[in-house]
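Recall that a protein's primary structure is simply its ordered list of amino acids. Everything else, from secondary elements to tertiary packing, is in principle encoded there. The following example makes that idea concrete.
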Amino acid sequence: MQSFQNPSERTSVQQMNSELENAHLELLNAHCAVHQLRLHYSAEDLARFGRSEVLRKSAQTATALRDFYAVLESKIAEDDHGPSPCQPGAEHITQAIEWITDYLREQREYYSPVASPLSKESKARMSPYFSATLLDRIRIIELRGARVRVPAFFQKVRELGFEPPAVTHMDSVTFIDIVAFNQRLTERALVHALVHTVQMEILGLQRYVNLWVQGFLKTRTHFTVPLEVHAFALSSKCLRSTVERFSVEDAVLRWVGDGRY
């Protein structure tokens, strides 16, 4: 266990926060998996027909995690003596939507000349879930240690009391139909990115960004924006070996129709 007493230990703190974000991603994936269980089975059926040892271990794990994060939550409350962040006005929201839309378009144009089509292997692996038209259109670039550009407007976002997404620590960033991988392509990151492309295609870029900003204002963290939650859930579903073929486009259309974004 490490303790950071020296503020200059930035590398250690960055590593800690990177591990914290990875843990949060795993928790979010677990939450999505449990949500699917709740949608398909009642608590009574799970308790009656589920494997008792798996249920007990799962409950013990969930309880331990709840206790751990409850301690962290209480310590955050003790340390948080600063003023609460202000709620941005309509003009700030409009500006944020414009900033993000311009950033996505600019980066798409920036990476377009050097981006490559998906390999035959990747297309074959993704074909049970995404249309051939989309897979033919998508382009990718593996930055292999380089990082996508951090938007200049992030500083203004912080001044309003929000912490913007750590784009340099993400596995991938979707710029409409071009996906930039901060390291190398992985299946999970590819599926997540392709879901965002489908969302943008169905919603239109402007509405997608609008919904993303509105979700971020409500949840104050990018992991819990509904557009992101659905992408995490669908990527986990696609990567489960027992899942049969299904259409990500249909899944996105259902969420749009139900107003879940």
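The first strand starts at residue 116 and ends at 117. The chain has a mean pLDDT of 86.
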